[in-house]
Design goal:
The complex is a heterodimer of chains A (300) and B (353).
Chain A lengths: L1 H30 L6 H17 L5 H24 L7 H23 L4 E2 L15 E4 L4 E4 H23 L1 H11 L1 H6 L4 H26 L2 E2 L5 H14 L4 H22 L4 H15 L14
Antiparallel strand pairs in A: 1-4, 2-3
Helix pairs in contact in A: 1-5, 1-8, 1-9, 1-10, 2-3, 2-4, 2-8, 2-9, 3-8, 5-6, 5-8, 6-8, 9-10, 9-11, 10-11
Chain B lengths: L5 H25 L5 H26 L7 H18 L7 H27 L4 H20 L1 E6 L2 E6 L17 E5 L13 H19 L2 H11 L1 H6 L4 H24 L12 H14 L4 H17 L6 H18 L1 H10 L10
Antiparallel strand pairs in B: 1-2, 1-3
Helix pairs in contact in B: 1-6, 2-6, 2-9, 2-10, 2-11, 3-4, 3-5, 3-9, 4-9, 6-9, 7-9, 10-11, 12-13
The chains are: A mainly alpha (300), B mainly alpha (353).
């Protein structure tokens, strides 16, 4: 049973990584930039839902909606103010700007909310009113899966299906794929590239808000640096699965979550990160474009 | 004098600038113009300048983004601390110990760079960047697991992978002393780093890097950066030249780390994380890719600025972030460029082909 419960905790953590990785991968696919500020949008999402519950007194679900709205607006603002002017610039300049935005968000949160960790109220309480764990019990109570893990896995699947449908079957989604393929050709076909990129950032940031709420539900301390490490792990997940690929982000996220949980359980708590990164290195050596990534052939 | 090439003049101006800065600081020190906090910044500034020169070799000259350069610094720092502490009895002169620490730190970081380079340099672009990030984090965690002690029988090393081992597992004689205590890092290090040593290290790093750039190897590396396929097709071996540049860059970072490690009595491995790599990358990009004196100035200004703004408390990093974004937008966006062109009309336009 130990193995199964580690597996389940790995999958639910992996689902959160997958949701974050989706944001990374979509932005990378279309804007060809590493958005290092994505992890901090997660943190802002966490704080927004925290504020919603604490100060506005709304319940967790409304707070989630609030966080999503705020993060969507934030994503569009970041893209419009910081990244859009640099569309033609060298990728390193965009990367440094993204790092600047990341510092900006972290330090704004530090100024507003302070450095002391906030105790976060999980979206679905871990204990019910009777003091029993809020969990699904299987095998006569030997294996319990908390409802929040179930909800996380479910929302990850729903988001995946919705995004696949969106990019495959709607006009906006097709515009998105066209822009990621060839911006100039897309512009000639009458697609507004700027609007499409804004939309991508909006979707990515809304997903980051969901991920922030879920992440804080698992790990109920909220600090200005909460988003950085999950952000980096999710970025790893996106690369692992093949950056730019939506199913790749799901696969990468789940695998990273499972590897992390297994490494913590069976190898060493200290070296869990190293194991994750070592697996990433090996995968990239065997498949340089990630598991599901497309290998681009270079034209001379 | 006019026969000198332009880059030779720039190089000499860079060396002279560093020496002049050293002279100024020495003068200020003897006249007691510098406060205690500024004095404490001198050695770290030198370390970050050397780090910036080293990373500029990888990012600016070789054209590959490295996000794990702090890892090499960490290898150098902890090697340096071990060397210096274990030789404390047998080598009496602190200067000699510092030099030994920096050399051995550089060698070990260079070897690490070689081992990492084998897989890393096969990849390209953002994938290469993420793998260097991964290696940086792995190095940091591995160092966190080290417990090292020294007694009259030599070094004792325990790899504390499960978090259960402690100083007792070193099996040292009672005279032994612990140098690195796992997650607590190096404690009780004798601080032998000096500003003069830092400036000499900067000069050595500059001599190595600037001469490398203007050598056959350097030209080959830059040709690979500008057009890998074209360079390859005229017979430049990609891996050998990139590896040379990468190992030299790692070794320089290692010596900077050794100097850094010996400047603090307590040092933890988490200092050498992703954020430190990014900090140095910001120096390099703001200073100008491939431009060594730009890196030096950017490292000094951007390291001193947040420290001097400490009075502003939490606001200082916010200001830093805004300045960073503003500079990147100002120098790289079309609008910003147009503004600069108006301000500096005589500046020659360089057209990209």
């Amino acid at each position: 049973m130990g193995f199964l419960s580690y597996l389940i905790s790995g999958i639910s953590l992996g689902s959160v990584y997958a949701i974050i990785a989706l944001g990374y991968t979509m932005v990378y696919g279309i804007a060809k930039m590493l958005n290092f500020a994505h992890g901090d949008v997660i943190m802002i999402g966490g704080y927004m839902s925290f504020c919603g519950m604490m100060y506005l007194g709304v319940n967790g679900w409304l707070a989630l909606a609030l966080a999503m709205v705020v993060c969507t607006v934030l994503g569009i603002l970041i893209e419009g103010l910081a990244y859009r002017p640099l569309r033609q610039a060298a990728s390193l300049a965009v990367l440094i700007t993204a790092i600047g935005v990341s510092y900006f968000l972290q330090n704004s949160a530090l100024l507003i909310f302070g450095a002391t960790p906030k105790v976060y109220q999980p979206l679905i309480p871990l204990m019910n009113a009777a003091g029993e764990p809020n969990a699904l019990k299987l095998f006569g109570g030997q294996l319990s899966i908390s409802y929040i893990s179930l909800f996380t896995m479910l929302s990850c699947i729903v988001i995946m299906i919705a995004l696949t449908w969106f990019t495959g079957h709607t006009k906006l989604g097709k515009a998105m794929r066209a822009c990621s393929e060839d911006k100039d050709a897309a512009r000639l076909m009458g697609i507004s590239v700027d609007k499409t990129i804004s939309l991508t950032f909006a979707i990515g940031s809304a997903l980051a808000a969901v991920a922030g709420v879920l992440l804080c539900s698992f790990n109920p301390t909220l600090m200005p640096t909460t988003g950085s490490m999950p952000g980096i792990r999710a970025f790893t997940a996106a690369v692992f699965g093949g950056i730019g690929s939506i199913p790749g982000a799901l696969l990468g996220g789940l695998l990273i979550g499972i590897i992390e949980a297994m490494a913590k359980a069976y190898i060493s708590t200290q070296l869990a990160n190293s194991v994750v990164f070592a697996v990433l290195i090996v995968v990239l050596l065997v498949r340089p474009a990630g598991l599901l990534g497309k290998r681009m052939t270079e034209k001379v | 004098m006019n026969k000198l090439k332009k880059h030779t003049k720039v190089d000499f101006a860079t060396y002279l600038g560093v020496i002049a800065a050293w002279g100024l600081v020495m003068l200020a020190q003897s006249q007691h113009w510098l406060g205690r906090s500024t004095m404490g910044l001198l050695v770290p500034i030198c370390c970050y300048v050397v780090m910036a020169i080293s990373l500029n070799l990888t990012v600016g000259i070789m054209g590959e983004l490295s996000l794990g350069h702090a890892g090499f610094m960490g290898v150098g720092a902890f090697t340096g601390v071990i060397v210096s502490q274990s030789l404390a009895v047998s080598v009496a002169s602190p200067t000699l110990r510092l030099v030994l620490a920096m050399v051995i730190g550089a060698v070990l970081a260079g070897i690490t760079g070689f081992l990492i380079g084998i897989p890393v340099l096969r990849l390209r672009g953002d994938y290469l960047a993420i793998v260097t990030l991964a290696f940086g984090e792995i190095i940091k965690e591995l160092i966190t697991c080290l417990i090292v002690g020294h007694d009259e029988n030599g070094l004792h090393i325990v790899f504390n992978y499960n978090g259960l081992k402690g100083a007792d597992d070193l099996n040292m004689t009672p005279a032994g002393k612990i140098i690195i205590k796992g997650a607590q890092g190096a404690t009780g290090t004798e601080t032998i780093a000096t500003f003069t040593a830092g400036v000499i290290l900067i000069l050595v790093a500059l001599v190595i890097v600037l001469n490398l750039i203007h050598s056959r190897t350097g030209r080959a590396v830059m040709a690979l950066r500008d057009n890998r396929i074209a360079a390859e097709s005229v017979g430049i071996p990609v891996t050998r030249y990139k590896m040379t540049a990468f190992v030299i860059s790692a070794a320089i970072a290692g010596s900077a780390g050794a100097l850094y490690g010996l400047n603090y009595s307590n040092l933890v491995a988490s200092k050498f994380d992703f954020n430190t790599s990014i900090l140095v990358l910001v120096f390099v990009v703001l200073g100008g890719l491939g431009n060594m004196w730009g890196s030096i100035i950017a490292a000094v200004v951007l390291y001193v600025l947040p420290e001097e703004l400490r009075a502003l408390g939490n606001l200082r990093m916010l200001i830093y972030a805004v300045v960073l974004i503003a500079v990147m937008l100002g120098t790289n966006s079309a609008g910003g460029r147009a503004l600069f062109a108006k301000l500096i009309p005589h500046r020659k336009k360089r057209e990209e082909v």
